[in-house]
Amino acid sequence: MISKIILYLIVPSVIITAFQVDYTPSIMKGLAVACIASVIMQFLLLFVTWIMGKMFHLNTVEYTSAYYSNSGNLIVPLVTYILGKEWVIYGCVFMSVQLFFIWTHCKCKISGETEISLKKILLNINMISVFAGVFLFFTKIRFPEIIGNTLSSVGSMIGPLSMIVTGMLIAGVDLKKVFTNKRIYLVTFIRLVIEPIIALAVIILLGMKNWHPQAENIILITYMAAITPCASTITQMCQVYGNDSKYASAINVMTTLLAVVTMPVFVYFYMKV
Questions:
Q1: Which pLDDT score is estimated for 3?
Q2: What CA–CA distance (Å, rounded) separates 150 from 70?
Q3: Helix H segments across 102-194?
Q4: Fewer beta carbons under 10 A from the terminal one: N or C of the chain?
Q5: Rounded distance, CA 196 to CA 223, Å?
Q6: Could you give the C-alpha distances from 258 to 96, 230, 243, 264, in angstroms and in order?
Q7: Which residue has the higher pLDDT, 202 or 234?
Q8: How confident is the model at residue 9, as a pLDDT?
Q9: What's the rounded Cα separation, in Å, for the pair 60 and 171?
Q10: pLDDT for 17-28, tens place per residue?
Q11: 2-272 adopts what CATH topology?
Q12: pLDDT at position 122, please?
């Protein structure tokens, strides 16, 4: 129930509120930088995961868990509390790019189907919120103060409720089985260590921090979105398409627990290089 409240009420409120900013050339260029960086990051991680999959014979659940980050659930509260709500707009770009991959590549991998549902991409609640926010941004429509404050207040609940959901997820699995499965450690190492290192190396090589006057923060948002734990969407899709949802959930829990350590470390390295 709490997950549905976050998905259908709180996250849309945060996304729409994020686009309630003045239309400026700087923000437009920033969005373009975020889009290019997000696409590069998705294809980079796809290639890295493909290599890892060949090397370690990852099955479908392991492969998709190693590739897809939990940006949809975590990037909004992370950006809000680290940089401020005015930066969430750039996190929405990564979420939009990843949603396209999730409902094309990820769905085909987990379901074994080859048909791509454009309808599910466009009608995803987060995508609808992004489209609504973009429309309001370009048309320069601003909500009355009472509506804007209401959306902002609703959106402010995302941090506490996300932590509650994470706690419920951890409480719902057998931690002994999670910590005694060696394959889970392998997938976790790929998702939380190998991919962040390679992503940071590419950011440095391409000089992404110099792409825009505010690129350091914009690219940081993209980087944080890419190095979060594995996507909870993987577990949900496994349940829908009859794959190993318990294994997917176990990987999600392990990566969520260890990301508490790895994410601050890699963000620190990002700020220092």
A1: 66
A2: 27
A3: 107-111, 118-122, 125-138, 145-155, 158-171, 175-179, 182-189
A4: N
A5: 8
A6: 26, 11, 24, 11
A7: 202
A8: 82
A9: 25
A10: 878 877 788 888
A11: Na+/H+ antiporter like fold (1.20.1530)
A12: 79
**How far apart, in whole angstroms, are the C-alpha atoms of residue 213 and residue 262?**
28
Exposure string of 95-110, with b = 16+ CB inside 10 Å and e = fewer, is bbbbbbbbbebbbebb
Kindly tell me if the per-residue pLDDT of 172 is higher than 80: no
**Domain extents in the chain:** 2-272
Any idea which residue has 């320069």 for tokens? 140
How much is the average pLDDT of 76-94? 85
Partners of residue 230 on adjacent β-strands: 69
98-121 mean pLDDT: 80
Q: Are 253 and 65 in contact (CB under 8 A)?
A: no
Whether residue 233 contacts residue 249, with contact meaning beta carbons closer than 8 Å, is answered with no
Q: What is the pLDDT of residue 233?
A: 81
Query: How many angstroms separate the Cα of 132 from the Cα of each of 82, 103, 109, 125, 151?
Result: 25, 20, 30, 10, 14
The amino acid occupying position 270 is: Y
- Which residues have CB under 8 Å from 15's CB, separation 6+? 76, 88, 92, 126, 129, 130, 133
Residue 120 DSSP code? H
